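Issue 218. Parser rejects a valid record. Input:
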Amino acid sequence: MEWQEIVLELREIAQVQTLEEQLQQLMTDLEMPAEKQLDLRLCLLEAVHNGIIHGNQEQADKKVTVCWRYRKGEFIFSVTDEGEGFTPQKEVNLPEDILAENGRGLMLLQLLLDKIWYNESGNTLNGQLTWLAESGDKV
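Output the parser choked on:
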């Protein structure tokens, strides 16, 4: 299967539902295992929320661009905000208060995705998730 690509622009948290609906349909079409669906949904939505809230500081005149490429067995996404960016740490540790509302997102992405990387300015997060086909081979 050849790579397919989708690009979305979001300006506020309320628009995330549209992204979630498109993502759910796509994961079903790709026959992604349920566990991987949960991982991808959590990671992509966390990255988008971070972009809107922390990157763009919820300013409606700024957008978060979500781009994903996929084929059966592999999903790669990028989330770019219009904020100043940040300097990502090589390793993110648990916050002191595990129940705190902030501080766990990047750690979760590192744990759940196969690969995570950023652009130089720190305002684009990229992630990759792969899964095995029923035959045991990546497709």
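Fixed in the parser; the record now loads. The beta strands are 4-10, 64-71, 74-80, 115-118, 124-130.
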